[in-house]
Amino acid sequence: MVIGTEKPTLYSAANLLPELEIDTARWSRIPAEQVIALSAAAIGARGIMFLRVKDGLEALARIRELIPAGSEVMNGSSTTLIEIGYSDLLKSEQHNWINVYKKVTSENDPVKRAEIRRKSVTSEYFISVVNAIAMTGELVSCDASGSRVGAWPFAARHLVLVAGVNKIVPTL
Question: Whole-prediction pTM value?
């Protein structure tokens, strides 16, 4: 779980809030430690390993530790992953992984690209984000294109989800 962002983007909440006229006090708050602990326990009770880190830099370091060298890695598009530096890490190629996204985007033949994209959700490691976390342990993801949701329930061998504690809400 990530508490803050390290690299705000055009699409970061902080940059969208004035435009959307939403209550920043309500939606940008950090929950009480007890709420975070109860949510973590509820997530764990659903059989999902929960790891908490202090910030985006630590989240990125933890992701690097979790993924062994030589593993196939794919991710869905995400402002959170951009904010913690994950997207820059992939582009820099300063990792020892097989970047499946690069395979998808470097294929010019539309039929072959579609096949690689279809198989991408079955990568050994799929990195995604959580849009909401209910204190009851349910995790919610919304996805306009469907690029990441398919990997969640069954396709990816290892699913690594990243979320800020600001995503915690009382119920679905």
Answer: 0.83
